[in-house]
């Protein structure tokens, strides 16, 4: 690219401060140009170290940038990202991409209609270890099942425990469900059906999936168990044995950089399709909705 992408950041919470802002500022193909949040003082505090403009409205931000990164609750993202896409701005989205399927459909349709690039920050998918693991699974083939265990006390305390959308609206399923469902889908084939889902005490989820080709998988998830260290393990099994993948602590920054590599390449080449684009976000949203419906 001849010039770095001018990227505006919507949101100024912990994730915006620790991952989005430094990632956009440090990447050679992007520049953090502007910040908007409904709390102007928070926007000013985030923007100041990067010499970014503080915007008082989304329209103000959209007039200054080529792309927009969102670090806001799902319902807010679904509303504002539609406006950004319709304005012709490429978008970096958080997971889940909306609060419900209807919102995700509107967002995916807006992205498609505008012909802009989109990526969802499914953190694990951009890690080199994950990409190598998935490539090895695809080369070997013959996988008949698998599962994920993601057990943590992340919503009992820490930087994200006070997040209203996690505590009141989404909880475990909305927060880590997208990562778990996405990676099982990528490893074993498209998830065609959520066969069962149960939500127990401590927001402990047990979800069973049926994949294209007949593989079965399961997810056991909770962010309200006092687990130290956090347990994150993906596994598949079949004719080539049993293969696992863990999560490296502190890998969000590296994954964000890898995502920006892909994002900049998409914009530079006019590509709008990617394994982790807005349409992928819609697919994951439908799986989340199915799990919620079955657990009621």
UniProtKB/TrEMBL annotation:
Where is each GFO/IDH/MocA-like oxidoreductase domain found? 162-241
Query: What is the official name of this protein in its record?
Result: Oxidoreductase domain protein
InterPro entries, from UniProt? Gfo/Idh/MocA-like_OxRdtase_N, Gfo/Idh/MocA_oxidrdct_glycsds, GFO_IDH_MocA-like_dom, NAD(P)-bd_dom_sf
Drop me one GO molecular function for this one.
Answer: nucleotide binding
Keywords for the protein's UniProt record, in alphabetical order: Oxidoreductase
User: Which parts of the sequence belong to the Gfo/Idh/MocA-like oxidoreductase N-terminal domain?
Assistant: 5-117
- One of this protein's Pfam families, by short name? GFO_IDH_MocA
């Amino acid at each position: 690219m001849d010039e770095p992408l001018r990227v505006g950041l919507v949101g100024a919470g912990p994730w915006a401060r620790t991952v989005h802002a430094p990632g956009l500022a440090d990447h050679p193909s992007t520049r953090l140009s502007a910040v908007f949040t409904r709390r102007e003082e928070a926007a000013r505090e985030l923007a100041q170290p990067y010499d970014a403009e503080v915007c008082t409205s989304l329209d103000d931000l959209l007039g200054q940038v080529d792309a927009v990164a969102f670090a806001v609750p799902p319902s807010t993202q679904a509303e504002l990202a539609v406006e950004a896409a319709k304005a012709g701005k490429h978008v970096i989205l958080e997971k889940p991409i909306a609060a419900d399927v209807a919102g995700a459909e509107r967002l995916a349709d807006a992205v498609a209609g505008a012909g802009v690039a989109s990526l969802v920050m499914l953190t694990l998918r951009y890690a080199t270890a994950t990409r190598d693991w998935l490539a090895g699974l695809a080369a070997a083939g013959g996988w008949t099942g698998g599962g994920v265990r993601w057990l943590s006390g992340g919503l009992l305390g820490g930087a994200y425990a006070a997040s209203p959308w996690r505590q009141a609206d989404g909880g475990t399923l909305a927060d880590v469900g997208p990562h778990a469902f996405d990676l099982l889908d990528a490893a074993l084939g498209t998830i065609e059906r959520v066969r069962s889902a149960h939500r127990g005490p401590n927001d402990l989820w047990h979800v069973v999936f049926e994949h294209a080709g007949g593989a079965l998988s399961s997810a056991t998830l909770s962010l309200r168990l006092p687990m130290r260290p956090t347990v994150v393990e993906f596994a598949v099994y079949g004719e080539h044995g049993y293969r696992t993948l863990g999560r490296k602590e502190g890998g969000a920054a590296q994954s964000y950089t890898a995502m920006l590599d892909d994002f900049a390449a998409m914009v530079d080449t006019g590509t709008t399709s990617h394994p982790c684009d807005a349409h992928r976000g819609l697919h994951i949203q439908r799986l989340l909705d199915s799990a919620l419906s079955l657990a009621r």
